[in-house]
């Protein structure tokens, strides 16, 4: 006759716990690693593993190494960041000389700048009077971060109005047309003139292309390489008397960090 194990102690000498707490505890130990891991892994993979086929700063158009330092800090909406990517690429496009703004990591440079004191106009006089809608970035009651966000969203609105498509999905010719109208001050933006917004965006783009990589742009010093600029050289004393042009390897501020 089969032995009744209902009241028989377990391996630890204690009677089994028939309660709901005991069931969850025991089943969690048994299958938590396998089932729980698989469930969570599938959940996060499905949510975050989708890739956008359009070229972006992440280099989705081809295999690239993961850059963990390139994480958005200011742009909480990816839609805004996507507009920034395409706008900066039109201002500083890729050509036979080298990568464009996206390849140089310019959008992430701008993101980092706007997330810090510069984006919040921390060191600027902010008491007014302001000439909102007509003046420069310094004459606006909006800080630089707000100016960039307003300008990018207006670019998307203009693209939808003219071409029935989002700015980051418009053709290069359509994107360029909108940017030229912003530069010519033909578009109205809340809090600042479109000309001043474009000037700020262009300035940030160029700074991101040629800054020291320490600040998040000029990826792999490619911006300097295109101009044959050596970068952060500590001293030219050993070559200052040379009459011929000397082509040097690029050096970043990060190269001076202790190993």
From TrEMBL:
Region spans: Disordered: 1-26
Keywords: Oxidoreductase
EC numbers, comma separated: 1.-.-.-
Annotated Polar residues bias: 1-14
GO molecular function, one term: oxidoreductase activity
Enzyme class: oxidoreductase
A Pfam match: Gluconate_2-dh3
Name used for this protein in its record: Gluconate 2-dehydrogenase subunit 3 family protein
Source organism of this protein record: Sporosarcina aquimarina
């Amino acid at each position: 006759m089969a032995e009744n194990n209902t009241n028989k102690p377990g391996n630890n000498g204690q009677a089994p716990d028939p309660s709901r707490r005991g069931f969850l505890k025991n089943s969690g130990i048994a299958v938590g690693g396998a089932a729980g891991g698989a469930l969570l892994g599938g959940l996060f993979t499905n949510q975050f593993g989708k890739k956008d086929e359009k070229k972006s700063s992440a280099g989705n158009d081809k295999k690239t190494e993961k850059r963990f330092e390139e994480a958005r800090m200011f742009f909480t909406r990816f839609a805004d960041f996507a507009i920034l990517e395409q706008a900066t690429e039109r201002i500083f496009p890729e050509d036979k000389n080298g990568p464009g703004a996206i390849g140089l990591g310019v959008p992430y440079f701008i993101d980092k700048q706007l997330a810090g004191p510069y984006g919040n106009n921390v060191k600027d006089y902010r008491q007014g009077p302001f000439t909102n809608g007509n003046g420069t970035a310094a004459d606006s009651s909006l800080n630089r971060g707000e100016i960039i966000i307003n300008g990018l969203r207006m670019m998307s609105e203009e693209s939808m109005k003219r071409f029935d498509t989002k700015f980051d999905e418009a053709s290069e010719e359509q994107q360029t047309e909108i940017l030229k109208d912003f530069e010519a001050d033909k578009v109205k933006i809340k809090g600042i003139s479109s000309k001043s917004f474009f000037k700020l965006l262009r300035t940030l783009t160029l700074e991101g292309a040629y800054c020291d990589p320490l600040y998040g742009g000029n990826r792999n010093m490619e911006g300097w390489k295109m101009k044959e600029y050596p970068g952060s050289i500590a001293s030219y004393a050993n070559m200052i008397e040379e009459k011929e042009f000397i082509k040097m390897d690029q050096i970043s501020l990060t190269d001076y960090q202790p190993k």
